[in-house]
Amino acid sequence: MMISDAIEDEDKWLAEGIAGIQHNAFYMHRALDSDNLREALKYSAQLLSELRTSRLSPHKYYELYMRAFDELRKLEMFFKEEERHGCSVMDLYELVQHAGNVLPRLYLLCTVGSVYIKSKEAPAKDVLKDLVEMCRAVQHPIRGLFLRSYLAQISRDKLPDIGSEYEGDGDTVMDAVEFVLQNFSEMNKLWVRMELQGPARVRDKMEKERNELRDLVGKNLHVLSQIEGIDLDLYKETVLPRVLEQVVNCKDELAQYYLMDCLIQVFPDEYHLQTLETLLGACPQLQPTVDIKTVLSQLMERLSSYAASSPEVLPEFLQVEAFAKLSAAIGKVIETQGDMPVVGAITLYVSLLTFTLRVHPDRLDYVDQVLGSCVKILSNKPKLEDSRATKQVVALLSAPLEKYSDIVTSLTLSNYPRVMDHLDSGTNKIMAMVIIQSIMTNQACVSSADKVDVLFELIKGLIKDLEGDSDDELDEEDFNEEQNSVARVIHVLYNDDPEEMLKIICTVRKHIMTGGPKRLPFTVPPLVFSALKLIRRLQNQDGDVAGEEDPATPKKIFQLLNQTIEALSYVPSPELALRLYLQCAEAANDCDLEPVAYDFFTQAFVLYEEEIADSKAQVTAIHLIIGTLQRTNVFGVENRDTLTHKATGYSAKLLKKPDQCRAVYACSHLFWVDDQDGIKDGERVLLCLKRALRIANAAQQMANVTRGSSGPVTLFVEILNKYLYYFEKGNPQITSAAIQGLIELIKTEMQSDTATPDQISDAFFACTLRYIQFQKQKGGAMGDKFDTIKV
Amino acid sequence: MVLVLAIGDLHIPHRAPDLPAKFKSMLVPGKIQHIICTGNLCIKEVHDYLKSLCPSLHITRGEYDEDSRYPETKTITIGQFKIGLCHGHQVVPWGDLDSLAMLQRQLDVDILVTGHTHQFKAYKHEAGVVINPGSATGAYSSITYDVNPSFVLMDIDGLRVVVYVYELIDGEVKVDKIDFKKTPTTTI
């Protein structure tokens, strides 16, 4: 209620003030039209009296001021035309000082002063000096600020700058600088006067008003920056020190923050670079509540852009030791503002790091130094809990990753892992994922075991359980994603040199073994396949690598593989382990290492026997064993017999009859390998097929008994196809009579009363018969062979 | 004209970190009408990725697949063609053409798509066409040495199917094509 009343009142007063101005302006215009100087002065003074009010906030006062300003322009034009009023400008200057009240008097004086300078009847510097001193008479903050702002506005184009018409003997750019600096100082003093005191609501209102006025003060700095005669030396010797003096001495938080920011914005980056020490030196002298880190960040941001847009200035950066100075300044600020929260300090270093990466990307020592400073801040403090601070640390760590697409560069930063150590375990994992993501996106490759070690230390939050991990936070999906990321990254660790590659594999193994049963199923397979790829590379190399004491050999790697896959038994992960053992067995076969291959098969069988109980899993497992065994040719007769015997035995013992049947006829292929020196034991093939047939028969009978109808004839058709397979291959034990018999059997089964019609097996059979027909029509040897089979 | 992507044996993340970048940029959603996948993705992320390329996704189970619910075999009809899908580790001897022919007869399909060997194959036999899209990531295989990443795109148009095979050889994508025609009411 009260506030809206106050606003209403202000609007009323403003309206009154404007009315007053308009009223007096009317008469002033009449006076101007009739060239009546006395009347013009009288009414303009009255008009200007409206600006004597204390009742308006800056925002509203500005509106009043602008009206007055417009009227003063007309007055100025009148003053300039001496022939109209007959008064010399010198006399005019005297005359207006007779105005009754000080504020109107000074506005008029400034207006005449403008004309005076333009007339060149007096040196610009003298007039300016006089005016800037006279304005001291107004000490009310708002009125004073607007008055001096008026002075600044009208004097702007009349400064004795280099090359300006007002430059002359005794009128130099120094005078211009002096004038502006003085006006600036006085304005700042006035501004700071509006102290923030009293109850919160009053303070807030005052702060708002102060902010509304700040551009008036800042404008002076802008004017300074536009003075052409100010070169680097002048800036360095005079302008900057004076401005900073004012900024520091006013001891006002609002002013200091605004003016530092203004200073950085209006003057060229080149100047800042060359006056870095002075500029930075002011920072610790500012009030402790000033948000100096934003100021410093702004500065660093500007300097980074400067470097980015003009690469030719880079040597300058080195020459002025920009990095060292900034680094020291930040250190000082943090030291002085002892109670600065961690997030503030880290944010500063993030800015410095951004600067460093943009300006000196090749100076890894600088980058490491920044990280080192952060480590110092984070030490002696408990693990970060503040989420904003954590975010900043993540930003800090992500910056080098983004800059250097080659992860190895970031891995050389010795302080990088130390910073990571200070993150809480959740954020640590997030950061590890960021690192992996960066590697994958940039398609980077890590090719030395040392660097792999460093990398895995960095991502150890994903590799193993760390202290501080809370168990109940384990989200399964997140966990799987993390582990799959680790798995993926293992594939980018690579070196052409087998020795180094083996070292890499051992390093990875060392780390993943600490992962525990939950992680091994994810991390072991990629390591195993990495090792198998290495073995394949070595396969083609013959003999020992000259000079190597302990060369990488397939045998050594197989030993490693054995131990690695064994770890899966602690999970336990028998199905996965079985598959991996079989992969190794096949690889050992290709290396001609019979005992190694045999051992791997043994391991696989042991797992099958002891660990794989699920019947569906058993079916897949046995087919994998059979498939692998079928391809191995390294075994001597005895070993081969043992293994094939085992395979067939287990096949026949599967739970469901159809599964038994299929596994057994698959075993037939163990005794017939189609290459040149492959085994071709026709008899044992037939034995398998016959056994399969018996099982199929039993299956049919069982179905009859249990379901009242025989099952589909699919199994018989499958076996028929196998008979055809071997018949074609020339297995003498497979006769066309046997095939004929099978065909008849199938036909009978299909037509029997108890048969369940089945579209699929019917189609299958039809296809098979069609195939036989096709072969018959082939002619030649094949045609003859099939001739005896009647479909 | 129906475009069918045949792809499989990615083995992510066991044997490969990701699809080759050049393949990834070619496989864009909205261009393909069906995906048939031989299996061994191996993780859900890959399934989701394929699904994002095309909602009509058919997969059969590979022996390393995380999701054990994928079927062992699948038959789909697209246009005039019956297509059979099976990973192939179930068919012993692995990669044996005659044994695969038996599977083809069993499923009674015009085209059998199968994997496991990581080697691209496309050939015609009595029962029809067998296509092996190879391994899309060039993953290690105990059966095939020097695997080049590959996948197959089938363009089915009436009774004709054009099989495009994309292979990544020495960093460049090479394309080859093979034509097959089906005679009406009988298999190819």
From TrEMBL, chain A:
SUPFAM superfamilies assigned: ARM repeat
**In which domain of life is the source organism classified?**
Eukaryota
Q: Primary place of residence?
A: cytoplasm
What transmembrane ranges does the database entry give? none
Topology of this chain in the membrane: Peripheral membrane protein
Task: Answer whether the UniProt record assigns the keyword Membrane to this protein.
Answer: yes
Pfam families in the cross-refs: Vps35 (PF03635)
Q: Which UniProt keywords apply?
A: Cytoplasm, Endosome, Golgi apparatus, Membrane, Protein transport, Transport
Example of a GO cellular component annotation carried by this entry: Golgi apparatus
* Cellular localization per UniProt: Cytoplasm; Endosome membrane; Golgi apparatus, trans-Golgi network membrane; Prevacuolar compartment membrane
- Give one GO biological process term: retrograde transport, endosome to Golgi
Q: Which family does it belong to?
A: Belongs to the VPS35 family.
Q: PANTHER family from the entry?
A: VACUOLAR PROTEIN SORTING-ASSOCIATED PROTEIN 35B (PTHR11099:SF6), VACUOLAR SORTING PROTEIN 35 (PTHR11099)
Purpose: Plays a role in vesicular protein sorting.
Q: This protein is called what? A: Vacuolar protein sorting-associated protein 35
